[in-house]
Design brief:
- With about 210 residues, this protein is α/β, with parallel strands linked by helices.
- It has helices spanning about 30-60, 65-70, 105-115, 150-155, 185-195, and strands at about 90-95, 120-125, 135-140, 160-165, 170-175.
- Helix 4 (about 150-155) links the parallel strand 3 (about 135-140) and strand 4.
- It is rod-shaped.
- The two termini are about 90 Å apart.
- The relative contact order is 0.14.
Length: about 210
């Protein structure tokens, strides 16, 4: 045994000649890597938890700005096409008086003529309707009149009842009821007609 060998040590630690055994330090690199990995994971979890708390207290995507919501909203659908209604000149109106007041049918027919309507027959209502129309009036015509002629003529007499019959002609009857006082003013009737022909906007989905 060499004089350089410490007492009690031998084998690979035996020192021969003039060389000392190389004493290696404990490997700490793996521990450092594990510690660094743990730190990264901990920071990631902390960041994720913070984002979750922000979403809880702020409502997440629901708090997006109006500009963002508008950008995400699908393009608005085009408005429905304007409704095409017949012009007053294309509507032939028969005016009948179902009230006890004389001369009312002629006066009403003259006023409608001034407003551009074509006038047909004028006289007293037959027994089926005479003094039996309790409201302001009744519009009577073919089923096709429901979506065209009736709405236009109705702008002159709001609240008038509508009824269809089996006629095949395009003319309509205006039967004046016991509560009739006057037609709508020309301005109010024109505004109501404009509202009927105005296209309706499509509902928003956002």
């Amino acid at each position: 045994m060499s004089m350089l060998t410490p007492p009690g040590m031998g084998g690979k630690y035996r020192i021969t000649g003039d060389k000392y055994p190389r004493m290696r330090r404990p490997r700490r690199r793996s521990k450092l890597i594990l510690a660094a990995t743990a730190s990264v994971v901990a920071l990631g979890l902390a960041g994720w938890g913070t984002l979750q708390l922000i979403d809880v207290f702020t409502g997440g995507d629901r708090t997006a700005s109006a500009a963002d919501r508008k950008a995400d909203c699908p393009s608005a659908k085009p408005s429905a096409a304007a409704k095409v209604l017949p012009k007053p000149a294309k509507i032939k109106v028969n005016v009948y008086n179902a009230t006890p007041r004389g001369g009312l049918a002629k006066a009403a027919a003259d006023e409608l003529k001034k407003r551009g309507f074509a006038i047909g027959k004028v006289g007293n209502a037959d027994a089926k309707y005479d003094k039996k129309v309790a409201g302001t009036g009744m519009l009577l015509g073919a089923p096709a009149a429901l979506n065209g002629t009736f709405p236009v003529l109705g702008t002159q007499l709001p609240g008038a009842a509508t009824k269809t019959d089996a006629r095949r002609t395009a003319d309509v009857d205006l039967i004046i009821g016991t509560k009739f006082k006057a037609f709508s003013t020309p301005k109010a009737a024109a505004a109501a007609l404009t509202a009927l022909t105005k296209p309706s906007p499509a509902p928003s989905t956002c």
